[in-house]
Amino acid sequence: MPGENLSRDEARERAALLSVDGYDVSLDVRSAVGEDPGEPRTFRSVTTIRFRCNEPGAASFADLIAPSVTAVTLNGKDLDPGEVFDGTRILLEDLAEENELVVDAQCAYSRTGEGLHRFVDPEDGEVYLYTQYEPADSRRVFANFEQPDLKAPFRFEVRAPEGWPVWSNGAGELADGVWRFAETKPISTYITCVVAGPYHYVTDAYTRTLPDGTVLDIPLGALCRKGLAPYFDTDDVFLVTKQGLDFFHDHFDFPYPFGKYDQAFVPEYNLGAMENPGLVTFREEYIFRGKVTQASYEARANVILHEMAHMWFGDLVTMVWWDDLWLKESFADFMGTFANVGATRFTNAWTTFANRRKAWAYRADQLPSTHPVTADIRDLEDAKLNFDGITYAKGASVLKQLVAYAGQDAFLEGARRYFKRHAYGNTRLGDLLAVLEETSGRDMTAWAGKWLQTAGVNALTPQVLLAPDGRIDELAVVQEAAESHPELRPHRVAIGLYRLEDGSLVRYARAEADVDGPRTVIAELAGAEAPELVLVNDDDLTYCKIRFDETSLATLRDRLGALTDPLARALCWSALWNLTRDGLLPARDFVDLVLRFAGRESDIGVLQMLQAWAESALVHYVAPRWREAAGRRLAEGALRELRQAAPGSEHQLAWARFFASTAADAADLRLLQELLAGTATIEGLDVDQELRWAFLEPLAAHGAADESVLAAELARDDTASGRRHQVRCLAARPSAAVKAQAWAQVVESQALSNALVEATITGFAQPSRRDLLAPYAEKYFEAIERVWEDRSIQIGMDVVRGLYPSLQDRPETLAATDAWLAAHADAPPALRRLVLEARDDLARALRGQECDARAVGAFES
After folding, report:
1. What pLDDT is stored for residue 35 in this prediction?
2. What count of other Cβ atoms lies within 10 Å of the Cβ of residue 54?
3. Which of 498, 582, 568, 496 is nearest to 536 (CA)?
4. Calpha distance 401→407 (Å, rounded)
5. On the CB side of 577, how many CA atoms lie within 13 Å of its CA?
6. What is the rounded average pLDDT of the residues 681-700?
7. Are residues 620 and 845 in contact, defined by beta-carbon separation less than 8 angstroms?
8. Catalytic residue selected from 307, 413, 641, 650
């Protein structure tokens, strides 16, 4: 990986020297089918780049990662590939004012989801191809200048196996055996795209009359593997797509600029989705093979709208360098939820955002690797790791705060001016702040300094002083910051006062105020009746951790389920989880709250998040001596709620999955076996194929489903999805030999694809048998530097994160981590960051266990 890196300084120098007029890229992927010629399997890539140099005679380089280069021609002169190509870069010397570079290369198909990924469907043997480039993997497919600010128009042509359809960013036509695609608008290399293979393809159309009377016609398409076609609900995909296009046209006043709008759901995808203009790619898991809850449909709609927002934020206007990644990702994350609420049936999406997305941000912002929203990105490895909870969810939260600060109308008008002023160009932070200052009249520089250019999360706690008559004498909000990141920020917040009425906790007073500095008095609430619950950041206007005064916390312990407003309830659950992670609330108390009140949760997305948090509390934060009892209580509670849930409801499905994840004793495992065999039933519960695999994983992990059982299940579901499930279950079995085999497959071999690496790691790291994983703690630290050097960055990240010995939750593991860090001060910064993050999670877990061990809680008896 080090030879593949590109630094910010190198990119700046090249952008100052060069400008690109256009690319012609010709790919021949007919080699994708047929007998395996051995590794690597390659395809021909011929690229012509027309570019200018403002310092004739200067030298620069083009980017290419390929097994071999057949020919390089610069301005009609043949260059010796052996002299100018080093495996990652092509040296370009004595450049003219106007230049033409032609590179004929043999590029490798990918099995790691980077570059041109080749997938063979085990169900029917069909081959499927797709590209994935962000942040810098288009150079694995064609020669280019791989940085976002060297935009250019692209023309692609593809020779594919006979009968294969091919898609790219522009509209395509097949003539004389070659697919030729319309030239794109000027775009960055990382959002070009090619998809090829016998995909199932469905079409539709979107039409809109623009304010000037012209009619905008956008051809729509959706595609997936043939094996998934029976499950592909394209009607819903197209519905959300059209709703999103309406919404963004209503608000952005800039017509969709990229012609057609295809959406490809592709196998073994590393990301959730990618915003390639005209050809958005998604992970195929968004096509649901079994029954899922509305939370899954909401999440898919959010991703569709997130990627659509990128057509403007990121594709039309692109950041100069990855420092300003937030200019696309934060905006898309915000706009995904904003449009979901404003345009689709998912009108409670802000509740999901408050509960799920912000939890991701809060975790990331408390790691030692936390960074400002506008980050310091030194190179491409930094960039890869900064697709994180801060860039996405904290950035989106900050934009939500900005909308409250500047006003929605001013915010949207700023976006409209931004698009028109910088269309097809590149921008930095100051370009956006300038238009927002124009439209809002506010000083954006000071706001950006506090919110975008500093790291860390503030905690807001209410202080309530009562007068002799029992009413509020003074209510203040105290703001605190971590010692490592002491910045106190201005917050626009709503403070809600709640009391019990007819058995329900309801809001009876609310004030919206600017909180700034260490203590802010909320004068508007003086004289109000004494509250039973004070909710700082009611309505979730700002980005902060909520704390509670003693009365409010006692109210939540007794009456959390009586809180009627779904968003307020979600905010309280999020705050309680943060208290647990911070070692301020015993983990057993959080588990007890989930057992007592989660069954009343109406919002299915919040319920599923609570179940995930409860499981995380059990695995990481409950004191070891209480784990077995806590796990037993969770399984009992899950089974009780499963039996009480409305037959056929999504809540029943959620509790069934949660019961499976917590089942451990013989009776619970026997019930799962009986449900699989059909000898036991629960009214309304359809044990479909996906649920069957969910039941089989705990059975395998506890030794109740052996290899033959898993082979029989694969025979029922011999598909790509079935293979991934089987691989995960096989690695989950409680055997030293199984763990050794899984470790070797991931660490010592490169035979597995990215999807199967992920499945193997998940199965390997089972918390039910920590003893079987103990020998791998030392092996982990011996292996990770070699893995980082030898593997692609995506696989390297998966291994370093997924195999860290977090389940060996002892001080000795922390000491081993510290020893590795001390001995590897010169290791790649991205690798050290991953290890530091894992260490921090472990240290936090140990603090949580100490808090839990001190408490007298629900499971002591």
Report:
1. 85
2. 11
3. 496
4. 10
5. 27
6. 97
7. yes
8. 307
pLDDT in tens, 107-137: 999 999 999 999 999 999 999 999 999 999 9
Find all residues with CB under 8 Å of 793, minimum gap 6, and list them. 1, 114, 381, 384, 830
Q: Is 307 a catalytic residue?
A: yes
Among 120, 133, 106, 113, CA closest to 42: 106
Q: Which of 159, 245, 150 is nearest to 192 (CA)?
A: 150
Per the DSSP assignment, residues forming a β-bridge with 478 are 461, 519
How is residue 102 written in tokens? 């032609």
| Structure-token pair, residue 829 | 């910064």
Calculate the alpha carbon distances from 855 to 529, 554, 679, 850, 860 in Å: 33, 16, 43, 9, 9
Order of strands across the sheet that contains 491-501: 504-515, 491-501, 533-538
User: Is the pLDDT score of 861 beyond 50?
Assistant: no
Burial of 199 (0-12, 13-18, 19+ CB in 10 A): buried
DSSP 3-state assignment of 495? strand
Phi, psi (rounded to 5 degrees) for 384: -60, -40
Q: How many residues does the chain have?
A: 861
Residue 80 φ/ψ, nearest 5 degrees: -80, 115
Question: Which two three-digit tokens encode residue 459?
Answer: 């905690």
Cα dihedral 661, 667, 670, 672 sign: negative
Q: Tens digits of per-residue pLDDT, 174-184?
A: 999 999 999 99
Whole-number mean pLDDT of the chain? 95
Q: Return the number of other C-beta atoms located less than 10 Å from residue 636's C-beta.
A: 15
Matching residue, tokens 């200067």: 58
What tokens were used for 536? 């700082």
Residue 135: cis peptide before it, omega within 30 degrees of 0:
yes
Phi-psi category of residue 539: left, alpha or beta, with phi > 0 → left and psi -120 to 50 → alpha: left
pLDDT at position 386 is: 80
Count of C-beta atoms within a 10 Å radius of residue 493 = 27
Q: Give, as one character, the DSSP assignment of residue 620.
A: I
Helix (H) or strand (E) holding 807: none
* DSSP, residue by residue, 467-503: -TTSBEEEEEEEEE--TTS-----EEEEEEEEEEETT
Q: At residue 139, what are phi and psi to the nearest 5 degrees? A: -70, -10
Q: At what angle do helices 650-662 and 627-644 cross, to 10 degrees?
A: 160
Task: Select from 408, 376, 415 the least CA-distant residue to 541.
Answer: 408
Q: Can you give the pLDDT at residue 3?
A: 58
Angle at the Cα of 300 from the Cα atoms of 716 and 566, rounded to 5 degrees: 115
Mean pLDDT of 414-441: 94
Angle, vertex CA 552, rays to CA 548 and CA 557, nearest 5: 105
- pLDDT tens across 529-573, in order? 999 999 999 999 999 999 999 999 999 999 999 999 999 999 999
116 forms bridges with which residues in the sheet?
Answer: 131
> 754-764 vs 720-732: helix axis angle to the nearest 10?
30
* CA distance linking residue 724 with residue 722, whole number of Å: 5
What is the pLDDT averaged over residues 830-858? 92
pLDDT higher than threshold 90 for residue 287: yes
**pLDDT for position 367:** 94
Task: State the average pLDDT over residues 518-538.
Answer: 97
Q: How far apart are the first and last CA of the chain?
A: 54
- Taking a C-beta distance cutoff of 8 angstroms, is the pair 279, 264 a contact? yes
Per the CB < 8 A criterion, the answer to whether 329 and 148 are in contact is no
Share of the chain above pLDDT 90, in %: 92
Dist. CA 686–CA 674, nearest whole Å: 13
pTM for this structure? 0.95
Q: Is residue 1 very low, low, confident or very high in pLDDT (cuts 50, 70, 90)?
A: very low
Q: What type of residue is 853? A: A
Contact 507, 498 (CB under 8 A): yes
User: At residue 415, what is the residue type?
Assistant: A
User: How many CA atoms lie within 13 Å of 371's alpha carbon, on the beta-carbon side?
Assistant: 23
